[in-house]
Amino acid sequence: MTDATVISARVEPTEGLGGSVGDFLALLKPRVMSLVVFTALVGMVAAPGSLHPALAVIGLLCIAIGAGASGALNMWYDADIDALMARTAARPIPRGSVTPGEALTFGTILSVFSVLTLGLLLNWTAGGILAFTIFFYVVIYTIWLKRSTPQNIVIGGAAGAFPPMLGWATVTGSVGIEGVVLFLLIFLWTPPHFWALALYRARDYERAGIPMLPVVSGPDETRRQILLYSVGLIGAAFAPYAVGIGGIAYLIVSTALSATFMALAVHVYRVRVGREADTVAKRLFLFSIFYLFALFAVLLVEHVVARVLA
Known about the structure:
The protein is mainly α and 310 residues long. The chain has 16 helices and no strands. Helix 4 (53-77) packs antiparallel against helix 7 (100-121) and helix 7 (100-121) packs antiparallel against helix 8.
């Protein structure tokens, strides 16, 4: 039996097989969802005004469910290439525990439910942004950009940047400059974050036929782009302080972390051969996760403390 036959069998499991609760939870991409919920929470807490605690919880749940629905629809469409990549081969559809049809139905129902609930119970600005976020991630990124251009991460990264703006809109019913600033922070963070991963996972992407930048333009150009976007990211990291949603603590932390991020990006740019090249790329990838979490955590703490002391 050829590899292609094995892969085909894995991505087209028998209809009616049915998956466990854990399989359907895995379709929601819980690790990605956790970052979405956290950044949306920061947007909600940083926004002027307040929500009844019950409505705030409902809002966060709707955002979480919408993000999970996007993940399920992404896995439905990408089942063929997921089976070819070591990082994704154990996902429910390639593994054969959930059928593509089940994933499509599950993701569609959750998408509709999350958008309607957020719109009806909170406001339609937030509901509309959530609907657009799901559409952008599934249609613009997954179906169109991911397999057609090395700029997939740059443009498609907007989908992951909407949650703090969405959190802001959930409270205010509008999108202010502050929400845009938080959007830009994640938007500019996404390319160096994912390209660092792509540098040491390039063979996976090449085998799956995904035109990630290291595959199309080579690792050296990828390193140059990481460096350029890192400069833009550091500028965006100071913007929350400039517009007044970040305080002195945020300024100090963002300065220290941004200096470290830039140093790692420069190291990735300089180290180009051998195992060390993969090691420094992985180091940047892992630090980038901590970097974004820490910046938003400081914003959250500042605003929670300000509310307690008010």
